[in-house]
Amino acid sequence: MNPRSWLYPTPRGLYCAPGDFYVDPAVAVPRGVITHGHGDHARPGHRSVLATPETLAIMRARFQDMPDTQQQALKYGDGVKIGDVDVSLVPAGHILGSAQVVLEYKGQRIVISGDFKRRPDPTCAPFEPVPCDVFITEATFALPVFHHPSDAGEIGKLLRSLQTFPERTHLVGVYALGKCQRVIKLLRAAGYDKRIWLHGGLANLCTLYQQHGIEFGDIALVSDAILETFKGAIVLCPPSAIADRWSRRFFDPMPAMASGWMSVRARARQRGAELPLIISDHADWSELKQTLSDVGAPKVWVTHGREEALVHYARSIGIDAEALHVAGRDEEEGEG
């Protein structure tokens, strides 16, 4: 049976016909299965949503009008039958609650990776390779030039900069969901035990992570500071805030940015990052290749990024690979 006969892209998103549902649909649909809470995957307005409990919590925090009747929580490893399709979720290692969607129908197993990374991250469950007949993989950093350095090494750059410029406020641009919380934990793992200051736009999701058992140590909002100079402090903020009037309150700020895209000098300049930190929440080129080996799928469909390079590589090692152009998969630079 051709897997394209029962799972295929449509203008609304990736559609599973025998289950009558979409995976990460681009528009509001009757039933959606959501891999994780980032805005290019989780959208409002669906009549019914299936996701991990953590992803549902993120969606509730972002979409205030989600009725309980629309939500079906599925824990990692549990399964449910939707129509004639067995559906389960396994960790993707991307952010809190992120999942790969495992679909089984008439003896075929298709795994939809969603966004994923392979590196350790205490803010989310680690990626689990699932053997399958078809693997649908993201390709955000699917070019041979993308080899992300160690996370600890990049955090070390930030801490060395603090030592070199002890009077300057280090403003670190981070995406609010996933990157912010991960950078805090990386700083703690590196031994940084001082207060970390947050822009107000990061507060709600940090609180949500804390409610799910992720501890951050001493964090506080910039807006709550009294008689604080912020000299020598680390302040996390949305990337857009670095160039905003908000940043003028800080003494001689050192603009930094944490993203996998910081390996591209033009993007670092575009973001105004004097201190680019290459910290990615996606798999790099070598990790994508390793994942294809780990899952052992004879067919690979590539989406959301640099499809051509990964398709070419997969075919070179005997995998039947093709690009799968799914609606709504726009690149989010801040989320890299």
From TrEMBL:
Q: Which residues form the Zn-dependent metallo-hydrolase RNA specificity domain?
A: 279-319
The organism's superkingdom is given as Bacteria
Pfam family of this protein, just one? RMMBL
Q: What terms describe the molecular function in GO for this protein?
A: RNA endonuclease activity
Q: Which SUPFAM superfamilies match?
A: Metallo-hydrolase/oxidoreductase (SSF56281)
Which NCBIfam families does the record match to this protein?
A: Xnuc_lig_assoc
State the protein's name.
Putative mRNA 3-end processing factor
